[in-house]
Design goal:
- With 151 residues, the protein is mainly α.
- It is built from 4 helices and no strands.
- Helix 1 packs antiparallel against helix 2, helix 2 runs antiparallel to helix 3 and helix 2 runs parallel beside helix 4.
- It starts with 6 loop residues before the first helix and ends with a helix.
């Protein structure tokens, strides 16, 4: 299960997003309509990171882990191995939490700080985007819990 999530993949995605963000931020001081389009593009870059990281990496990993947990039959294994899948699942949760913390630090350092200097009124909007991301993670965890309760 540990191989289902990769901190390296998450770090590479964040770095690619950071590189893209730096290119877009070059145009952040454009006035009027173009400036708004640049700010919208900055938001979109971050949203795409969240979508790719969540929907293409974290969610499939947890779906696969849940399938493995559902198919595990402790009676077929020795007593020493009985809790191994649970330990592996908790390790996977720990890796997922670390990825979430990486994204949170990236958001705070790269998205809020530089942009809020020139876009003080937009800070609230970025907080809404962040809350949306956290809500999406919470829904994912609740979905996993509800699936366990059905089993």
């Amino acid at each position: 299960m540990q191989l289902l999530l990769s901190l390296d993949v998450a770090l590479q995605l964040i770095q690619a997003d950071r590189d893209c963000l730096k290119r877009v931020q070059t145009f952040i001081r454009y006035p009027g309509t173009y400036g708004r389009k640049v700010r919208d593009a900055i938001e979109e870059v971050f949203i795409v990171l969240l979508q790719v990281l969540g929907e293409k990496h974290v969610v499939p990993a947890f779906k696969s882990a849940i399938k493995q947990m559902e198919s595990y039959k402790p009676e077929e294994h020795g007593e020493a191995d009985e809790v191994a899948p649970l330990v592996q699942f908790f390790e996977l949760v720990h890796i997922g939490d670390t990825i979430q913390q990486m994204v949170d630090v990236y958001f705070e350092k790269e998205m809020v700080s530089p942009i809020s200097i020139s876009l003080r009124n937009r800070h609230t909007h970025f907080q809404v985007v962040r809350v949306g991301y956290l809500h999406r993670q919470e829904r994912f965890l609740e979905h996993g819990r509800s699936r366990k309760e059905k089993v």
